[in-house]
């Protein structure tokens, strides 16, 4: 059974959703507080959504200095699967574990709605079980979710297949419809939509399952 660590920052509010989702897929979930200096014996790490440290300065800017982030960075450097969802994605970019940045949505509007994603690459721990071109309905819930980067970074993302998910109909002004990116190795991934909220058709969509199924078993592939 895979053990997935879910990092909890002051202001996180999606940690229970993330834990419940991976448990539904047969993994065990363990909450890891932001002040921890060790991840313990986990097979994967999720940085969940919310408002880490109240999003003061800018989303993720303070969370990157939490003691746990040194352990997350070391885990990622060893090839460990790391997933940042929404605010977690912002934290990963601020920490330098993923390229680019997230800025305020086009129109300065908070968005909370279903959105259709297109799988652009399966070279990541999140999309490895999906198919390129697949369309997945997954909700978004953010104000600062528009992905941006400079031209050099963008060219590198394209060249190395690091854009893993795009919006079918761009809701927030993200560059090139980008909804999720990976590092070059594919073991660190961030996305603004919430796959943990798309686990059942009773709640609107079960399309998040294929993403999280790939993630919870990714450690077996990495090692």
Would you give an account of this structure?
This protein is an alpha/beta fold. The protein has one domain (3-222): Class I glutamine amidotransferase (GATase) domain (Rossmann fold, 3-Layer(aba) Sandwich), CATH 3.40.50. The protein contains six helices and eleven strands. It has helices spanning 15-24, 68-77, 87-94, 151-159, 208-216, 218-222; strands at residues 3-8, 28-33, 44-47, 82-85, 101-103, 111-119, 135-142, 146-148, 163-167, 178-182, 188-191. The strands form two sheets. A nine-stranded mixed β-sheet has the order 2-1-3-4-11-10-9-6-7, with helices on both faces. A two-stranded antiparallel sheet has the order 5-8. The longest helix is centred in the first third of the chain and has 10 residues, at 15-24. The protein is globular and about 40 Å long. The relative contact order is 0.18. The model has no long low-confidence stretch (mean pLDDT 95).
Give me the secondary-structure topology.
Elements: E1 3-8, H1 15-24, E2 28-33, E3 44-47, H2 68-77, E4 82-85, H3 87-94, E5 101-103, E6 111-119, E7 135-142, E8 146-148, H4 151-159, E9 163-167, E10 178-182, E11 188-191, H5 208-216, H6 218-222
Strand content: 25-35%
CATH-scheme architecture = 3-Layer(aba) Sandwich
How much is the radius of gyration in Å?
15 Å
C-alpha termini separation: 15 Å
CATH topology: Rossmann fold
The sequence of SSEs as H and E is EHEEHEHEEEEHEEEHH
Side-by-side strand order of the widest sheet: 2-1-3-4-11-10-9-6-7
- The overall number of domains is 1
Give the mean pLDDT: 95
Q: Which class best fits the helix and strand makeup?
A: alpha/beta
Name the CATH homologous superfamily: Class I glutamine amidotransferase (GATase) domain
Residues in helices, as a percent range: 10-25%
Uncertain segments are: none
- Most strands sheet: 9 strands, mixed
Alpha plus pi helix count? 6
């Amino acid at each position: 059974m895979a053990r997935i660590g879910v990092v909890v920052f002051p202001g996180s509010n999606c940690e229970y959703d993330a834990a419940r989702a991976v448990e539904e897929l047969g993994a065990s979930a363990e909450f890891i507080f932001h002040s921890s200096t060790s991840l313990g014996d986990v097979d994967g790490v999720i940085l969940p959504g919310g408002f880490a440290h109240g999003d003061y300065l800018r989303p993720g800017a303070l969370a990157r200095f939490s003691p746990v982030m040194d352990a997350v960075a070391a885990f990622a450097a060893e090839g460990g699967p790391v997933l940042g969802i929404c605010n977690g994605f912002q934290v990963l970019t601020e920490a330098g574990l993923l390229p680019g940045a997230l800025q305020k949505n086009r129109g300065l509007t908070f968005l909370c709605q279903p959105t259709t994603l297109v799988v652009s690459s399966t070279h990541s721990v999140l999309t490895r079980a999906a198919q390129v071109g697949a369309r997945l309905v997954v909700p978004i819930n953010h104000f600062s979710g528009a992905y941006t980067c400079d031209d050099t970074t963008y060219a590198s993302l394209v060249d190395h297949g690091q854009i893993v998910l795009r919006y079918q109909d761009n809701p927030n002004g993200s560059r090139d419809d980008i909804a999720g990116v990976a590092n070059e190795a594919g073991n660190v991934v961030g996305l603004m939509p919430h796959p943990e909220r798309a686990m059942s058709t009773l709640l609107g969509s079960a399309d998040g399952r294929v993403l999280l199924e790939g993630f919870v078993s990714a450690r077996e592939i990495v090692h």
